Amino acid sequence: METVVSGIRPTGNLHLGNYFGALRNFIKMQDQNRCFFFVADLHSLTTHPKPNDLSGNVRQILSEYIASGLDPEKVTLFIQSDVPEVSEMYVLLNMLAYVGELERTVSFKDKVRKQQNNVNAGLLTYPVLMAVDILIHRPNKVPVGKDQEQHLEMTRIYARRFNNLYGVKFFPEPDAYNFGDDLIKIPGLDGSGKMGKSENNGIFLIDDEQTITKKVMRAVTDSGPTAPNSEMPEVIRNLFALLKAVSSPDTVQHFTDKYNSCQIRYGDLKKQLAEDICKITLPIRKQIIDIRENTEYLHKIAKLGAEKARESAGKTLCEMKKIIGFHQF
Ligand code: TRP
Questions:
Q1: Where in the sequence of the chain do the CATH 3.40.50.620 domains occur?
Q2: Would the pLDDT of 111 be above 60?
Q3: 7 ligand 1 Cβ < 6 A
Q4: What is the mean pLDDT of the chain?
Q5: pLDDT(181) > 60
Q6: Residues 6 or more apart in contact with residue 300 via CB below 8 angstroms
């Protein structure tokens, strides 16, 4: 049995990128593995520091996890800030993280550009906290989307550095995990590379049919291929990437053939795409709406999750502190 860890920041509703990146893979793994899945609410403080950003979103995202098929009986489903061991280990791991290395992280450089008036130290050490989330359960696998690859590489570096410094084989070096061969990157509908919460280019699990159809029909395209078998420009490749994620291989083949023979009608492709997205998300939407009203149930789940997560985290932290040399006198 393998140990698997993943989490998602509660900075907005879950979108298809989250669903295909971390969540769906995680759900597939929950039967066979020891799984930890959490709401990364500490991480969200790096960009969303106010109480109103948090409370509603944590409820929403927890409901969205469960509605998507995460089974709280099978996985340890918890809220990051309910596990104080995470914050304690964060102090310890910070001593192994070099500032130069953190400054070079793609996500940090990106945030420096995007929120120039709030380049806080939490943003800089975001990868350290993420490494803690992961290493504190000593897992083998971390199901995440492609955008998290670098963070995971840093997690492995810290694990290795700790092991080397103290001459132990304590932390594993976990791998990114996806059921397909490649990590999936779900593009945005505005032709940009990535579906994101802040970019306003996403389709959310909570969107209704009309909203989804409207968003998809408005997705950016070009004027169509002019020669057979020509290479697709990025915006079109992105639409096909979405299609691949949600539609059957036959459907993908059908539109690929149409493209290659210059007969493609983007309107038809989008109609099909919207329909296939709805098939996946509308049943989830219905569940989300039911679950998020049920405060008592959500509290029960969070409490149970916190207990299980703390047990696992506490063990790691205790051993880690012994290795470092605390508790010796
Ligand atoms: N950085 C991840 C994201 O933005 C969220 C996250 C925080 C995470 N801690 C994690 C993902 C640990 C996997 C494992 O989506």
A1: 3-183+294-324
A2: yes
A3: yes
A4: 93
A5: no
A6: none
DSSP H/E element including 176: strand 175-177
Ligand 1 in contact with 142 (CB < 6 A)? yes
Q: pLDDT higher for 20 or 191?
A: 20
Domain(s) of CATH 1.10.240.10: residues in the chain? 209-289
Cα 210 to ligand 1 centre (Å)? 31
**pLDDT, average across residues 177-200:** 69
* Nearest residue by C-alpha to atom 15 in ligand 1: 8
42 pocket-lining for ligand 1 (C-beta < 6 Å)? no
**Atom of ligand 1 at shortest distance to CA of 130?**
9
Give yes or no for residue 166 having a pLDDT over 80. yes
Identify the CATH number of the domain defined by range 3-183+294-324: 3.40.50.620
Q: What are phi and psi of 128, to 5 degrees?
A: -70, -45
Nearest CA to 38 out of 1, 2, 86 is that of: 86
Out of 14-23, 56-65, 260-269, least confident range = 14-23
Specify the residue for token string 């594993």. Answer: 172
Catalytic residues: 111, 194, 197
Ligand 1 binding pocket includes 5 (Cβ within 6 Å): yes
**Residue 126 CA to ligand 1 centre (angstroms):** 9
- Type of residue found at 322: K
Question: What is the sign of the dihedral through the CA atoms of 189, 190, 195 and 200?
Answer: negative
Tell me the per-residue pLDDT of 257-306, one tens digit each, with 9 for 90 and over. 999 999 999 999 999 999 999 999 999 999 999 999 999 999 999 999 99
Q: Is 12 in the pocket of ligand 1 (CB under 6 A)?
A: no
Q: Whole-prediction pTM value? A: 0.88
**Structure tokens belonging to residue 192:** 């940009």
Task: Please determine, looking at this structure, whether the domain spanning 209-289 carries the CATH number 1.10.8.60.
Answer: no
Mutate to test the pocket of ligand 1, among 16, 110, 151 (most ligand atoms within 8 A of CB): 151
